[in-house]
Amino acid sequence: MRDFVGRTAFVTGAASGIGFALARAFAAEGMNVMLADIEAAALERAIAQLAAFAPQVRATAYDVADFASVSHAAAAAAEAFGPVHILCNNAGVAGGSGIEAISPETWRWVVDVNLMGVVHGVVAFLPAMRARGRAAAYRQYRL
To answer: In this structure, what CATH number is given to the domain that contains residue 123?
Structure first.
């Protein structure tokens, strides 16, 4: 895919950091961008920062660890912009301490976000992307 103008990108973890930078870059290329993040207030701030130069940007608050939430976000993106062409499964978390001090509950959260969040994104978005039979991209970004 070489022509990005008018295409749609869906970016998870988009309220800050790398996700926000990806969303900003896609918007600068003339793409429709759906920002997705669990932090609703941070999403509002991100939209406000992009609104001045990127009118085709929307946001959806959702949880990558919950497949129903991801499916709802995929539907919201399709309703707002039509087909999604680029999926950036960027959302990720860390345990917050030394490996020996991480509780089983925190490990579950890390796995649910960092692994299952990617799986949920692939299951919710990729079939429609492939069914269109047009150029599409799947990107996974992790630090």
So the answer is: 3.40.50.720
Q: How far, rounded to the nearest angstrom, does the alpha carbon of residue 8 sit from its chain's CA centroid?
A: 12
**How far is residue 99's CA from residue 81's CA, in Å, rounded to a whole number?**
42
Q: Which residue range forms the structural domain that includes residue 38? A: 8-139
89: exposed, middle or buried (C-beta count within 10 Å: 0-12, 13-18, 19+)? buried
Q: Hey, what are 24's tokens?
A: 């900003």
Alpha carbons 44 and 51: distance in angstroms, whole number: 10
Does the pTM of the predicted model rise above 0.85?
A: yes
Round to whole Å and give the CA distance between 119 and 64.
9
How many domains does the structure of the chain reveal? 1
More confident residue, 109 or 95: 109
Residue in 108, 119, 112, 114 with CA at minimum distance from that of residue 91:
114
User: Is 47 domain-assigned?
Assistant: yes
Is residue 10 within 8 A of residue 84, CB to CB? The reply is yes
Q: Which helix (H) or strand (E) holds 120?
A: helix 117-131
Task: Look over the chain and give the mean of its residue pLDDT values, rounded to a whole number.
Answer: 90
